[in-house]
Amino acid sequence: MKEIKGKEKSIRMLLENTRFAIDYYQREYKWDTKHIQDLIQDLSEKFLDSYEDGDDRAAIQSYNNYFIGSIIICHKDNKTYIIDGQQRLTTLTLLLIYLKNRLEDDKQKSKLTNLIYSDVYGKEAFNIDVEERNDCMNALFEGNDPDEADTSESVQNIIKRYNEIEYLFPNEFDDTKLLFFSDWLIQNVYFVEITAYTDEDAYTIFETMNDRGLSLNQLDMLKGYLLACITDQDKRNKAVDIWRDWSDKLRVLGKDEDTEAYKTWLRSQYARDTRKRQRGATPLDFDKIGTEFHRWVKDNSALIGLERSEDYFDFINYDMQFYLRSFIKAKNAASSLTSGLEPIYYNAKLNFTLQYGLLLAPLLIQDTDNVINKKMLIVGMFIDSYINSRIWNFKSIAYSNMQYTMFNIMKEIRGKSVDELRVLLANKLENESINFRSNDGLYLHQQNRYTLHHLLARITDFVETKSGQPSRFTDYIAEGKDRYEIEHIWANRPERHTNEFPQAVDFIAYRNHIGGLLLLPKSFNSSYRDKSYADKLPHYFGQNLLAKSLHPDCYTHHPNFKHFISKYNLPFKPHPEFNKKDLDERQKLYQELAELIWSPDRIRNMV
């Protein structure tokens, strides 16, 4: 093996005036939602551990650093190739583009731009130089929606992950905090860059780092501790079989889901406190279970009730099996619409991973399947209403914003009966200061496109199912070439509306209000986007019921729809024209539909 060099580098040191190539067999970008969510959560929490309002920018030098892992590169053919680490570098490039697009400070935008692409020997290109990505990356860099037509799965994945960064990034970051975070990210977040000078050496390093790791993980250590405390050999052997069986079942859910299951179970039943979001705060139960649950169980054995050998066996044989079975039930309901557990799926589609601890919290091992389903449904409905009311009021539902609140609710509902749970959570929703009545001006903007799409899908699906039609919610949120998109009823043609909006900027802002939006197939948007309302209206009649309701004929040919309107006294009406007054009326209609869909009464009146 020839010379190998390892050097600690900040993101700025790594990316500034550097261009990386990727061999053709490594160009797939495969990160999924959970990877993005974990990265943003880790970065934002580490930054907020140090940041305080009133700091000057020089203080960032003393903020905590964050180590993001190693990157293996190889110099050959006058290029620098990434052998390992392109997933993280691609994701960080997407994060830098997002920050550049949001920042107001031109000097900082320029600084980030130099880390995103560079001019080398007169050629401008992105610092991770993959030709098939260029059109997509250019569109994202310019703040535009990329065209996904005829693109590879890898490019489509890049677009999805960028959209999720917009959605998942904590909205508590105002301009000042965002400026500080961007400085901290490029200066205080580090890689170890490992450089080899031949392909053979580079791949030897890669294989050594990835294929020979034999150290025990948290689950191995928890298993060893629990089994060692069971003195009866027959029971220990049975416990080994139980553990192996559940490990196999959890592995089917996906990578790292076994670890996630144990964290969720232990947090839901035993965590007493969590770290406050302030500088110098120390990790507490919730946090320790997240990072070292094997050690936490050992240190808190008395709290859990582990004293004798029989206790340890029962913990595996009863508690562990019950809560892991319930975790799998929740995860399966999150992956596909399940009758009686639909809210779990809706919450999962908003990437609300905090729901699993709450779903397990009220469960008791003596609960029947029927009771488990009822408790999960009540909790799922509460979360569904709670997070959608926040979305309606421009409030973040990102993990970092919601963890403390959800932790306290989780403690409050532990072990509650179905009736106790129903009353407690319905009242909690009723007493919330923000709800669907507290904001009558919901509109589409750059950061809420994903969540607003979800709101429109729920509203559209509700209107249709309550009118006797089958649910098409999964179609409305599906991704791919045949996906549904947000349709503006008003084309982006201010000159058509000068009588009501003399200033184009006022028209552009107003057309984004939710009352002026629909969900329609991408093919429709492509064909009719620029048409006048008069031209669009006949074609709306051939679309979903929410779009169809704009047309007068909808009220003569749909008796089930008319019954739905009458039952709930909803202000549906045809709109032969669509002016400002019409948009305002639709805004009010959508608001009333949202109040109905997410009403606390659906929990209170649940049978």
Judging from the principal axes of the Cα atoms, what is the shape? globular
Distance between the termini: 70 Å
**Spatial sequence of strands, sheet with the most strands:** 1-8-3-4-2-7
Category from helices, strands and their pairing: alpha/beta
Helix content: 55-70%
Mean pLDDT: 90
Largest sheet: 6 strands, mixed
Number of domains: 3
Strand content: 5-15%
The count of β-strands is 10
Radius of gyration: 27 Å
Task: Walk me through the structure.
The protein contains 28 helices and 10 strands. With 607 residues, it is of the alpha/beta class. It has 3 domains: 5-211, no CATH class; 218-430, no CATH class; 449-604, no CATH class. The chain has a 6-stranded mixed β-sheet. A two-stranded antiparallel ribbon has the order 5-6. Strands 9-10 form a two-stranded antiparallel sheet. Strand 5 (117-120) and strand 6 form a beta hairpin. It is globular, with a radius of gyration of 27 Å. The termini are far apart. The mean pLDDT is 90.
What layout of secondary structure does this protein have?
Elements: E1 5-10, H1 11-15, E2 20-21, H2 33-50, E3 66-76, E4 79-84, H3 86-102, H4 106-116, E5 117-120, E6 123-126, E7 128-129, H5 134-141, H6 153-168, H7 175-188, E8 189-196, H8 199-211, H9 218-228, H10 233-251, H11 257-270, H12 285-299, H13 301-304, H14 309-335, H15 342-349, H16 355-360, H17 369-392, H18 399-412, H19 418-430, H20 449-466, H21 473-477, E9 484-488, H22 504-510, E10 517-521, H23 522-528, H24 533-540, H25 545-548, H26 559-568, H27 580-597, H28 601-604
Parallel strand pairs: 2-4, 2-7, 3-8
Antiparallel strand pairs: 1-8, 3-4, 5-6, 9-10
Helix pairs in contact: 2-6, 3-4, 3-6, 9-12, 10-14, 11-12, 11-14, 14-15, 15-17, 17-19, 20-27
